[in-house]
Design a protein that fits this description.
Helix 6 links the parallel strand 6 and strand 7. The protein has eleven helices and ten strands. A five-stranded parallel sheet has the order 1-5-4-2-3, with helices on both faces. A five-stranded parallel sheet has the order 8-7-6-9-10, covered by helices on one side. It folds into two domains: 144 residues, 3-Layer(aba) Sandwich (Rossmann fold); 154 residues, 3-Layer(aba) Sandwich (Rossmann fold). The protein has 322 residues and is of the alpha/beta class. Bound molecules: N-carbamoyl-L-aspartate (NCD). The site of N-carbamoyl-L-aspartate has 11 residues, from helix 2 and helix 6.
Length: 322
């Protein structure tokens, strides 16, 4: 390593302060509980269409080098409701990265301009690299096909609020287990709670390998199975659907071949065990529009929970001053 900065290390503390949120592996259960309880209070502020001044004078850097709508806007809304200012960099082509600057150099400079950095990047592992040189707290806003921990905190918070518990669940996740960072992080998140079983659903070309499945049971999930049968969703308490991540496909033909088959309709769900339907959005092919009218469809509320959760994270990470 050329830099004399300390490399990124997993935190050992089990509650805040948390300096780097790179993976769901960084957020033990007690820390999740603190985030959820703080988010409940932040939801009260949002419900009043009001704001706090708790992060007045703070600067939040949003470095988003891959497309984003919900993640970037909910971070901006969260910052606004906490009285903080944001500085935004949204495309790699408009930044010095296009001139050949390394991610590490960019992050070192941005850390000098801000009190916390949120990074979205197309490369798996980019957030850990960035954290290893970042002198201020850093949050992974999605690193390629690897992880998206803040989305998982939103997902777990949604299940907690809408279903009342985070354990003893059977959760079906589709339809791109291989490339979906939201699926990867949610599996890790569910592994923290007792007796959660997951069923991964998608075309065989997009299956996870045996080592990845074994790692999930080692991470705490009670049972992990994988199937190409979309009908398996009917037996789940909760289903979590995410589009094919075509930007990460080597062969675009796979998406074209399976787009219609991996789409749930209201008919598919009639008389099923499914109590909750989640989707990190954007919705592309995976959910037919009439499903929106079903009482189980909570994905637009899930997107709204992005604001209180990110308010909680920013507050807990910036205010602690690590
Ligand atoms: C997800 C992402 O970026 O991974 N979007 C989001 O953050 N809500 C899901 C996706 O793009 O499919």
């Amino acid at each position: 390593m050329e830099s004399d900065e300390k490399p990124y290390r997993r935190p050992v503390a089990h509650k805040f302060p948390l300096k780097y949120l790179v993976s769901m592996g960084d957020v033990p259960r007690v820390m999740q509980e603190e985030i959820f309880q703080t988010a409940d209070q932040m939801q009260g502020v949002v419900d009043l269409r009001s704001g706090l001044e708790s992060l007045g004078g703070k600067v939040i850097a949003l470095i988003f080098l891959e497309p984003s709508s919900r993640t970037i806007l909910s971070f901006q809304a969260a910052a606004a409701r906490l009285g903080a200012s944001v500085i935004v960099h949204q495309t790699a082509s408009a930044s010095s990265l296009a001139k050949g600057e390394s991610l590490e150099d960019t992050i070192k400079v941005v850390a000098g301009y801000s009190d916390i950095v949120v990074l979205r990047h197309e490369a798996s592992g980019a957030a850990a690299r960035a954290a290893s040189v970042c002198s201020v707290p850093l949050i992974n806003g999605g690193d390629g096909g690897n992880e998206h921990p803040t989305q998982t905190l939103v997902d777990l918070y949604t299940i907690r609020r809408e279903f009342g518990r985070l354990d003893h669940l059977k959760v079906g996740l589709g339809f791109d287990p291989l490339h979906s960072r939201t699926i990867h992080s949610l599996c890790r998140g569910l592994g923290y709670y007792d007796s959660n079983e997951i069923v991964l659903i998608g075309p065989e070309e997009l299956f996870l390998d045996d080592a990845a499945l074994a790692a999930m049971t080692k991470d705490g999930l009670s049972k992990v199975t994988q199937t190409s049968d979309i009908g398996a969703l009917r037996e789940c308490d909760i289903i979590y659907l995410n589009r094919f991540q075509v930007e990460r496909f080597a062969d675009q033909e796979v998406a074209r071949r399976y787009r219609d088959r991996y789409r749930i309709t209201a008919n598919d769900l009639a008389g099923s065990a499914v109590k909750l339907i989640l989707d990190p959005l954007p919705r592309i092919h995976e959910i037919s529009e009439e499903v929106d009218e079903l009482p189980q469809a909570v994905y637009f509320r899930q997107a709204e929970y992005g604001v209180p959760i990110r308010m909680a994270l920013l507050s807990l990470m910036v205010a602690s001053g690590v």
